[in-house]
Structures are given as C-alpha cells and as structure tokens.
Design goal:
The chain is mainly α. It has three helices and no strands. The chain has one domain (about 5-89). It is elongated. Helix 1 runs antiparallel to helix 2.
C-alpha cells in the first residue's frame, strides 16, 4: 500500500465522517444558539433549560436520519470492499 493510497483512503474517510456528522453538529449549534438567545432575553439561567431540549432534539434527529446515516456508511463500506484488491498490493 503506497503512501498516496493511504492518504486517499484517509481523505475519503474524513469526507464521509464530515458528511455524516454535519447534520447533527449544525442542528446542535442552531438549537444552542436559539436556546441561549431565549435564555439571555428572559434572564433565566437554569442549565436544564438548555441541555434537555438540545438532547431531545439531537435524539429526534438521530432517529429520523438514521436510515440516511446507515446508508452512507454502508455505501462507503461497499466501496472499500469493492476496491479491496487495490489495498493488498
């Protein structure tokens, strides 16, 4: 396995990881911003008011997007196994 092939595999892996993680990270950021803004405007400083809705929203997004996540990961795994002969030499 050449260093170029290893670099290409790592590049593909990082790309897939970013694509799969992006919906969760972006939604958690947006929800945190909205909750922090609401907390600032109402002067409520209770920590459970931010953590519970954020966790619930992330759980719902995970449940809703799980088929898409699994499909992306399965496609990437199939691609790796299809090109397995290239990695052995």
């Amino acid at each position: 396995m050449t260093p170029d092939l290893v670099a290409e595999l790592l590049r593909q892996l990082m790309k897939e990881a970013m694509i799969v993680a992006a919906p969760l990270l972006l939604s958690a950021t947006a929800i945190s911003f909205v909750l922090s803004l609401a907390q600032t405007l109402t002067s409520l400083q209770e920590q459970s008011l931010t953590s519970v809705p954020r966790l619930a929203a992330i759980a719902l997004i995970l449940l809703a997007a799980m088929p898409w996540f699994l499909g992306r990961i399965a496609d990437y795994t199939r691609l790796l196994f299809a090109d397995f002969h290239r990695y052995l030499g």
